[in-house]
Amino acid sequence: MEIYIPLVIFLPLVGFIISGLGARFLPKNILGILSSSTILGSFVCSLLLFRHIYNGGNVVYLNMFNWINAGNVSIDFSFLADNLSVWMMMIITGVGFLIHIYSIGYMHSDIGFGKFFSYLNLFVFMMLVLVTGSNYVIMFFGWEGVGLCSYLLIGFWYKNTNYGYAARKAFVMNRIGDLGFLIAIFLLFNNFGTTEFKYIFSSNQSVSKTAIEFICIMFFIGAIGKSAQIPLFTWLPDAMAGPTPVSALIHAATMVTAGIYLIARSSILYIDTTIAANAVMYIGLATAIIAALTALKQNDIKKILAYSTVSQLGYMFVALGVGAYTTAMFHVTTHAFFKALLFLGSGSVIHAMGGQQDIRFMGGLSKKLKITNITFLLGTLAITGVPLLSGFFSKDEILSKAFYGNGILVFSLLAITSVITAIYMFRLYFLTFKGNFRGTEEEKHHLHESPATMTIPLIVLSVLACVGGILGLSSLFSHNHFISSFLKNVTYDKHIPHPSITFEFTIIAVSIAVLAVIIYLCYNKFSKNYSSNNEDANQNSLSKLLSNKFYFDEIYDFIFVRPILNISELLYSFIDRNFIDRIVNFSGTLVSFGSNNLRKIQSGKLEYYLLAMVLGIVSFLILIQIV
Fold this sequence. Notes:
Blueprint: H1 4-22, H2 28-54, E1 60-70, E2 73-81, H3 83-106, H4 113-132, H5 136-154, H6 161-192, H7 197-200, H8 209-226, H9 235-238, H10 244-253, H11 258-265, H12 267-270, H13 275-295, H14 301-321, H15 325-352, H16 370-383, H17 390-405, H18 408-433, H19 441-446, H20 452-467, H21 482-487, H22 501-526, H23 532-537, H24 541-547, H25 552-598, H26 606-626
Antiparallel strand pairs: 1-2
Helix pairs in contact: 1-2, 1-4, 2-3, 2-4, 3-4, 3-10, 3-15, 3-20, 4-5, 5-6, 6-8, 8-11, 8-13, 10-15, 11-15, 13-14, 13-18, 14-15, 14-17, 14-18, 15-16, 15-17, 15-20, 16-18, 16-20, 17-18, 18-22
């Protein structure tokens, strides 16, 4: 089975090379098919590895070579296919393949088609390295790789200055978190003498609880940056500057879940922590609430979904914080389905609207975009937790784990966040697809359904968003379901009492009642005679606070950006210009003065040269005699 690991990982790298080198001479359709085929090949190999492990096969370990060997530091370039990494492989390559197919239609008219697919393939390669690395150093290599690819893809349309700023913001904020990850790796090596999972997780070495707490906190700082949690979350909404398939792949299904994977992979370290686990839970809880509130007053279709992603990631961190690691991975899975669907659906809407992203100028699109309308509605129902759809099962499990594992407060705040999620998602759906069209005549004339390369992935993802909850269906009747049973040997969940049947059916009944009321109110408010002028005129202080995203960007600008710029300007004025520039200019002046005087001896007259030679010989002879 070892052969399948390099195939899974390096097939996307082959696609990157093909797309990069063939962009100039291969037809776009051929280029898109070849690039997508490499991801499909990875997916098939992932399925084969999954079947092997599911049927009781041994964990597959592949050591390719010794990468770093200096003193007592020895790092192997090695990979691991166990239950957790194989599960992530299937998500990355399965959803990634659908997004690649979608991109063929979405990016077909873009002059950077080949470059886009090469970046997309490189990202998948780096993400696979991240989840299959057998030690934290290889994981960090993939971690930094997806950060680089994120920068390239967010700023793909680099001629737009604002898009370049968004890419730079994502890159810088991720580096802040990455420093925490790097410190954690150093501390691991200092305490365990290795970074290999199999040695750390099975180590009998006595390591102080304080050291473990600090290591886990540093890991969490890395996860905060990559998975966009407070305070390092403001980069993700701005990252919507990239093409929509980028939002679906990186910021819904893969890269932003890397922090969840890191903590789930390190669950054996977190399981006995108190400070680190509480930090994970409470920061996740705060992020879920604040991001959901912010989404209520956003009007850009992709930014609403971006804040929704931040909020859903907060749910996952709450699950991690209470010790329900398999529950977090369950929500990672269902979220990959319905959020990728919603992002790709928004891309279909933007494609039909000729680039318009403001939902206040949409409306009535269900008449022209029938497939997009149905699939987007299914994604909306899934994320809002409609019973029997995928989002309900994973959210319900997080709520029950929070209730039985921590208490009523965390449960209540998550339940309120679920209500807010339903409000902003149905506002988004009704403003976009129902009511009267509010755009321009040119946009109305341009409206059309997307091509099959875009609608087929939407249909497939909508099916997964509906039935993906089957993976957790048994959680209604027993403590274990498919995902928890499959991951139990890798993730070390805390023992949390299983909810009663009464609790579960109460949640179902309340969910149905609340969602029915929300749908009715949102339909009346946002489908019938909606006017953006009325909405803007009725803004109070809270509405302005939410519209301005709690002023996080302005606060960061005031505290960090402006002081650094002012200090830089001060240093430039007083040190750079008055000292460094003068030293450099003096050196240039000195060289210029010397050369101007030396050139006078180069007169071009032979007699002077002969005289200089004679004087030189005489001086040389005199010097010899003296010596």
